[in-house]
Amino acid sequence: MAQPRGFRPDHFYYGLLIAAVALVVVAGVVSSISTREARHAAELSQHSERVMTQSNRVLAVLGNTESFGLRWMLSLDRDYLADYHLHMDDLDAQIAELGLLVADDAEQLARVEQVAALAAERRVWNDETTRGTKALLEAGDLAGAAAHPRQRVAAGTGGRLSQQVRATLDAVIVAESEQRRERDAAMAARLAETNRTVVIANALALVAGLIGFLATWQSRKAWARERDLAIAKERAEAASQQKSLFLATMSHEIRTPMNAIFGFSQLLSRHLKDPKAVEYVRAIRASGQSLLALINDLLDLSKIEAGRMELHLVPTDLQDLVETTLTVFAEAAADKRLAMSADIDPLLPRALLLDPHRVRQVLVNLVSNAIKYTPSGEVGVVVRSQQVGPDRVALQLSVSDTGIGIEPEHQDRIFDPFHRTEKAEISRVEGTGLGLSIVRKLVELMEGRISVESAVGKGSRFVVAFAGVPVAKRVAESSLRPLHVDFSALRASRILIVDDIALNRDLMEAYLGDAGHTLAFAEDGEDALAAAASFQPDLVLMDIRMPKMDGRVAAMRLREQAKGKAPWIVAVTASSMTGEEASPRQIFDAYLRKPVAAQELFDALQGLLPRREAGEETPPAAPATTRGGARADVVSGVDADADAVASPSAIAALGEVLDVQWPRVRATMRASEVRILLDQLRVLLPQCGRADWTALLADAAAAMEAFRVDDVEASIDRLRESVMAATATTAAQDP
Among candidates 243, 98, 229, 69, which has minimal Cα distance to 173? Predict the structure, then answer.
């Protein structure tokens, strides 16, 4: 076919190229405009962020003014008054800065002006309170001066103004957030329109089309890879869930009979006089402990791999921990005629912030391995420390032996799960190959590192090193308390035992039956509710997994049924996965994991039941009852007239502190803020005339010193609930 005269193919190609370039230029111009608009929108969004940040800063300063104002009113300390004025000046400055930020927005400016007016009114109220208090002080009326601010606080005017300020600031934040959302949505729509324009322009260009084709091809490959990864991830997560479910079920099914094996073997050993029989019982417990150790290893490995293992740091006496751990292995070492030694740095601080359970677990595994693989010679533990800061030490813990050693080719693999060498000396030693794997993962979880030095036929040395361990002020009381079990030391109480396994009920009865307590039993949650209605227990030992109605539902129903006078409820369960424990700790007052030793049960009960008074005789063992059995008198540890001398104004002030300040402190649980709150409560509580409230505050203070954050929260939450209930009762009775 003849071509038109003057037509050349390269002209067409050049035209396509020019058209493509022109379209790319147009797309670039459109993109540039869109970019400028996006930049402007980003600036507006940043301005909104500054407004919201400044609003939150005003809220924070407001909280400081309230705190120091309240401290001045409660303590009449002029230092607190000075701090109040400083923070009040800062509050005015922060409000003014916020006004400058919203000056171009009439609605927001009106809200800020309202905040300023309310803050000024709050300041006038506080100044009036201060002048009245000072006047009483100058007149020599100390009692009136102490009562005046509390009466003002109880009236609620200051709290109302503060709440109005907060509500207005919240409105500022909400409005600004809504503006930012609307701007972002509009900009997103604009960008979407721009992108469509650019895509259309580039699609008309030959070069852009080629690039798009190549990009699409690469994108499809990436999408295919992402799809395959997503499928693999889903399969891995499903497998992990199945493994976790299997381990949880296996743990529960094994721990349930193990509870009876451990408990009854412990009780049986106390009544045996035949040395041979005692040896048989000891063998039963040893075999059970081996089985339980295997289960615990599997569960720990699963938790660590799933990222659910948590550390619980408390002040710990490391020297005591090492020495007591070695005592456990003294008999095993003596059986093999091995010498054991502990060389502990004399400069080692008395109290270090560690997880004693996990440190002991690491040490137990390393010492146990050393004894296993050492036919003769010695096993030694060395602890060294070095100061690396004002309150931190570098810590090195090593375990050495004179055993068979490890071949060089296996030293890099001994920390792998289930790895064991094929040497005859090792293959004859019982074990799963999990211990060292768990040790390494635990050490890494504690931000440490572990290494090994070994020579075949000469022995091995495992070294655990931590770069900076915090030094604590004192050792937690729990780590120094000697083991002691005496259930008769607790005041005679009514205890309901709920478990679908008869052996577990029998074990609890064997622990408690001779201590003067009145016992009743139930086989499931439904039976527990019926038994509680007639038996009126002081405390319930509740299994979790039961037929008909599980322990969680039964506990919640029991609290509803009790109408505010619920007994203490202790979870006793064979479940051991982290997810299984989270729920019980929110529902129950204490948590015990099967198999339950007598010491563990006693520790839980003595934290809930009152102790027998000095000189109080132990009553004879009460006959156990079943559902509907005869009731016995319940000895109460609460004085019915404890609040007879309570000060209504002090209770009102206490209620305001717990209702306003505690939720904010609880949200962050900063140590400094918690201690300030505890100081405020110490000032108010003596005037409330409530011994039970004072005891709760003491529990919270002790938990704070021991770094038990959960216990601090629980104690203050219970105190707040009790105060709110008392306040509500007083309000209902007030004509």
Answer: 98
How many angstroms separate the CA atoms of 590 and 579, rounded? 16
Give pLDDT tens digits for 261-299: 767 776 776 677 777 777 777 667 666 665 666 666 666
451-481 pLDDT, tens digit each: 999 989 899 999 999 998 999 877 654 443 4
Q: Which two tokens stand for residue 283?
A: 């063998």
Pairing of β 494-498 and β 352-354: unpaired
In degrees, rounded to 5, the angle at the alpha carbon of residue 567 between the alpha carbons of residues 550 and 554 is 15
Tokens 């227990």 correspond to 537
- The Cα–Cα gap between 22 and 245 comes to 63
pTM of the model: 0.40
List beta partners, residue 463. 398, 451
List the single range of 23-27, 302-306, 392-396, 540-544 with lowest mean pLDDT.
Answer: 302-306
Fold of 487-606: Rossmann fold (3.40.50)
Question: Could you tell me the two tokens for 562?
Answer: 């009790």
pLDDT of residue 108: 83
**How far is 567 from 570, CA to CA, in rounded Å?**
10
* CB 289, CB 280: distance < 8 Å: no
DSSP bridge partners of 296: none
Q: Are 352 and 469 in contact (CB under 8 A)?
A: yes
- Report the SS3 class of residue 83: helix
64-73 burial, b at 16+ Cβ within 10 Å, e below that, comes to bbbbbbbbbb
Q: In angstroms, how far is the first alpha carbon of the chain from the final one? A: 110
Give the integer Cα–Cα distance in Å for 549 and 524.
6
- Where do runs of H (alpha helix) occur along 270-380? 275-305, 318-328, 330-335, 356-372
* Sequence-separated (6 or more) residues with CB below 8 Å from residue 453: 460, 461, 463
Strands 314-316 and 352-354 turn out to be: antiparallel
Centroid of chain to Cα 539: 25
Q: Evaluate whether the domain defined by 318-474 bears CATH number 3.30.565.10.
A: yes
How far apart are alpha carbons 704 and 102 in whole angstroms? 43
**Structural tokens at position 635:** 């000895």
Closest CA to 711 of 663, 660, 669: 669
Rounded to whole angstroms, how far apart are CA atoms 46 and 40? 10
Residue 409, CA distances (Å) to 365, 412, 436 in order = 22, 7, 16
Report CA dihedral (289, 293, 295, 299) to the nearest 10 degrees. Answer: 150
Distance in angstroms (rounded) separating the CA atoms of residues 433 and 298: 11
Round to whole Å and give the CA distance between 654 and 673: 17
pLDDT digits 0-9 by tens, 156-182: 777 788 788 888 888 888 888 888 888
* Cα distances (Å, whole numbers) of residue 412 to 433, 436, 460: 14, 12, 14
Query: Distance between CA atoms of 255 and 295, rounded to whole angstroms?
Result: 9
**Side-chain half-sphere CA neighbours of 171 within 13 A:** 15
Residue 257 or 126, more confident: 126
How far apart, in whole angstroms, are the C-alpha atoms of residue 273 and residue 277?
A: 8
Q: Which two tokens stand for residue 284?
A: 């039963």
The residues near 648 (Cβ < 8 Å, ≥ 6 apart) are 154, 730
